[in-house]
Amino acid sequence: MIKLLEGKVAIVTGGNTGIGNSIAVNFARAGADVVIASISETGLKETAEEIRSLGRHVLTLKTDVTKKIEVHDMVTKTVSEFGRIDILVNNAARHGYGTFLLESDEIVWDDVIDTNLKSVYLCCREVAQVMIEQKKGNIINMSSILGVQAGRSCRIYGIAKAGVAFLTKGLAGDLVSYNIRVNAIAPGYIKTPMISPTLEDPVALKNLNNKILMGRVGEPEEIAKVALFLASEDSSYITGQTIIADGGFFA
Fold first, then answer.
1. What is the pLDDT of residue 250?
2. What single DSSP character describes residue 154?
3. Which of 60, 73, 75, 58 is nearest to 127 (CA)?
4. Measured distance CA(108)–CA(97) in Å, rounded
5. Using CA atoms, how far apart are residues 197 and 212, in angstroms rounded to an integer?
6. Cα 2 from chain centroid?
7. How far apart are the first and last CA of the chain?
8. Region 16-28 average pLDDT
């Protein structure tokens, strides 16, 4: 088996559950050593053990990626442990429900924007300094189809994810001269805890599946494979793009 990421070091934020877990494990299968940064310890130990079982090194860090000092500490510890950072996946996220923007609470706005957008900016800015010195790197940001089309029940989340897509384009331009590529993934509806209420409601799930050309919600593994493609040299001529992986939801 070809190890697409042999010898690489990857940071995956929110890498303990859902899509982040699948990305971290798939990167390890592809030969990378992985740093899992998460504010929650749920699933952290299990993910780390799975990566070690694949013969790869793993570092777990409890990190609030909305805090500049904790992001700096995450990067410092990664470089101290592995000596480099080849790949950054900004996956940490939280949902934010609220039908109308004008009815949204300011506290919710700050929390959702900070977790889904500010964190991406902070992590990119800190990790980019290491990659600039290396004169090489790869950044993958997690956007969403809700950042492309406004969802009625999650306006603020969509605004944050639209910002991630725009941030991706801007960073790609800023960093291209340093041989650093920056791309994003916009997943559709994926089997993660974030949409568990829909998954547990047969009627709601049927209605959702009817809106997707492929007739089903996606698996975290399917998004992880897109991330692996973007992280590898197979995508060497791609930067500044947001790849939509939605099973045909928009089609």
1. 86
2. B
3. 75
4. 9
5. 18
6. 24
7. 34
8. 96
The answer to whether residues 39 and 212 touch, using CB atoms and an 8 Å cutoff, is no
The structure tokens listed for 220 are 């975290």
How do residues 116-159 score in pLDDT, each as one tens digit?
999 999 999 999 999 999 999 999 999 999 888 876 667 888 99
Q: What is the structure's pLDDT at 251? A: 83
Instruction: Quote the tokens at residue 243.
Output: 């790849």
- Using the CB atoms, write b or e for 167-196: b if 16+ within 10 Å: bbbebbeebeeeebbbbbbbbbbbbbebbe
Query: How many residues comprise the chain?
Result: 251
Question: 158 near 146, Cβ under 8 Å?
Answer: yes
Tokens of 89: 């996946």
Structure tokens at 94: 């939280």
Q: DSSP labels for 61-114?
A: EE--TTSHHHHHHHHHHHHHHHS---EEEE-------BS-GGG--HHHHHHHHI
Give me the active site residues, please: 157
Whole-structure pTM over 0.85, yes or no?
yes
Alpha-carbon span 109 to 113, nearest angstrom: 6
User: If we measure between CA atoms, which residue out of 233, 46, 230, 35 comes closest to residue 143?
Assistant: 230
Tens digits of per-residue pLDDT, 43-85? 899 999 999 999 999 999 999 999 999 999 999 999 999 999 9
Of 74, 180, 182, nearest to 133 (Cα)?
A: 180
The pLDDT of residue 151 is: 67
Which pair of tokens denotes residue 116?
Answer: 């889904």
